């Protein structure tokens, strides 16, 4: 658990420094940073999707895998999210906290940064290594990356980024505690599929940041479960 705790503290500390910087940042500079950050997130997310989808065969040829699953996952996940109104409920919760803390933009900062910090291979592999072997090296690297990202995000999105440390603690902490069970259930292929869908969601966040669209990213979160269900069905089929 030490790696997850360090990761949580790094996000909180980075977010706190970002909030201090935010006070002196003019609006036009804030908008420019948001757009640049969105472009960076788009590139990283696209790289994550492609690296999960494309494998290099021993012959040197490229093989595409999971493209259809990605489309189905996003479609089914979004349908479930829209029916459950996940984004609306999270935004309502965010507005309640905004009113309580008397701050603006809490929901956007909280939802966007939580997804960025919790999606990706490192957020799964790191806690698994931490829980099974006591090896926190992956999470220490993630802490440095997340702390820096939290600083930049908080300087533009505000206090919501600071609170995103809580879902990171709960998510990665749970994986670390259940590592013994999860390591048997999560194969490399399943991890790759989950990350592929996760990075696609992060790509949507990047699009929102540059202002080219307004995608309700929280409604796509159930898409992360579709590869898990698909993997379970394939396992049952082989029995």
UniProtKB/TrEMBL annotation:
Protein's UniProt keywords contain Membrane: yes
Pfam family, one: DUF554
Entry keyword set: Membrane, Transmembrane, Transmembrane helix
Transmembrane parts of this sequence: 6-25, 37-60, 66-84, 105-128, 148-170, 190-211, 217-236
Cited InterPro entries: DUF554
Domain of life assignment: Bacteria
Protein name: DUF554 domain-containing protein
